[in-house]
From TrEMBL:
Protein name: NTE family protein
GO MF, any single term: hydrolase activity
Species this protein is from: Lampropedia hyalina DSM 16112
Sequence intervals crossing the membrane: none
Keyword Hydrolase appears in the UniProt entry: yes
Length: 338
């Protein structure tokens, strides 16, 4: 009698694509926590902009330290990370953020990471996508989150690199090229345009916030009013433009220069993400509802992380083809304490 041999199932190689999103990127921490609770092992990661920052910490096994740092950081601590420069190619140099990351990262180079990781950037001169997988991590992260006009670009091997969200906001294709057979993607910008439009429409009838409820940008503006630094003085003037149109005027207020710049980025990234996800759909898509979170609202870290966690938990519970484990890597260490 011949007995048929059962072929062992080949485990999936799980890849995680962490999308851009500035402060909304802290939701990736919650997503990682949800993956850890399900016992999923991530074999490779790619990140764009804030996704690159969280991805590098996750690949090094230190995303729990990042969570603790941001949960305990108030808006004054966030302002302390900004290093304004005379505006030539950007308002903020980004070196203070590099030093902040240097203190958190146990691995200084890509090759030192226990889990493969790549950072997505844009060459601002050619418009091409540049994926970094070698060299110093902090420089790659800086390049990936360098929003044009706000953070200074980074020179790298003949390229002038800025935010990768301009070309690949949710790097599904990058993770596939790394060998992932099951891709989990996190899109943080899917509802930002719609929610910003709704906010603009209702703004004219909204009551003014009390001093204790002032949004992050107002608190930054008030803090910077006493500065004598010419760049910071210009920043104060730009932030003040947000109040230029009175509430009783017809229609929504005319946005200031930062709002216009960021809205342009958001619209572009949102539309590009939709196209990319149709062309190269991930196996599991997680879309936390974060459209009301502004660019620098890192002081809402706890709220953002929990939104990411709940969105991931729901998506995982609804996924019918979820692999039981990855193929190669050890589980990424992540705190699951709330």
């Amino acid at each position: 009698m011949i007995h048929a041999m059962k072929t062992p199932a080949i485990p999936s190689r799980i890849g995680l694509a962490l999308g851009s999103g500035s402060a909304r990127g802290l939701a990736h921490i919650g997503v990682l926590r949800a993956l850890a609770e399900r016992g999923l092992q991530v074999d490779c990661l790619a990140g764009t902009s804030m996704g690159a920052l969280v991805g590098a910490l996750a690949a090094s096994g230190k995303v729990d330290d990042l969570e603790k740092a941001f949960r305990s950081m108030d808006w004054r601590g966030i302002v302390a990370l900004l290093d304004p420069v005379f505006p030539r190619s950007g308002l903020i140099d980004g070196r203070k953020v590099e030093r902040f990351l240097q203190d958190l990262l146990p691995s200084q180079y890509f090759d030192d990471l226990p889990t493969p990781f790549q950072a997505v950037c844009t060459d601002i001169l050619s418009g091409t996508e540049v994926v970094l997988s070698q060299g110093r991590l902090v420089e790659a992260i800086h390049a990936s989150f360098a929003v044009p006009g706000i953070f200074t670009p980074l020179r790298h091997e003949g390229h002038i690199l800025v935010d990768g969200g301009l070309v690949n906001p949710v790097p599904v294709s990058t993770v596939r090229h790394m060998g992932a057979s099951f891709v989990i993607a996190v899109d943080l910008n899917h509802d930002i345009v719609e929610k910003r439009m709704a906010t603009a429409v209702t703004h004219t009838t909204a009551p003014l916030p009390s001093s204790s409820e002032l949004p992050f940008w107002m608190r930054v503006r008030d803090t910077l009013k006493t500065t004598r630094h010419p760049v910071l003085q210009q920043l104060v003037e730009w932030l003040a433009e947000r109040d230029a149109v009175p509430l009783e005027s017809e229609g929504p207020p005319i946005p200031g220069i930062f709002e216009i710049l960021l809205a342009s980025v958001y619209i572009t990234q949102s539309r590009l993400t939709r196209i990319n996800l149709l062309h190269d759909a991930p196996d599991l898509l997680i879309q936390p509802p974060l459209g009301d979170i502004r660019f620098m609202e890192f002081d809402r870290a706890s709220e953002i992380i929990e939104i990411g966690y709940e969105a991931a938990r729901q998506a995982l519970s609804e996924c019918t083809n979820l692999p039981t484990q990855g193929a190669m890597a050890k589980p990424i260490p992540i705190s699951i304490e709330q």
